[in-house]
Amino acid sequence: MNNALKEAADGPLKGILNYSDEPLVSSDYNGDPASSTIDSLSTMVVGDNMVKVVSWYDNEWGYSNRVVDLAAFIAKKGL
Asked: Could you tell me which residues come within 8 angstroms of residue 69 by beta carbon, excluding any fewer than 6 positions away?
């Protein structure tokens, strides 16, 4: 599961989704421009068909960065 999440964070979701292998705490994500950062140390498979994923985010800052991304996209399209 972590491999798939890391591939997404390094690929099509780069800059939106981050991936961390470090033992960080919530205050470490203050001012993080990503919408979410996967805490790979806390990810676990439960049984045969369930996965627990812990993800950290700075709600206001991550959201603000996505609004800027959207505004840039709209401007680029000339909408």
From this structure: none
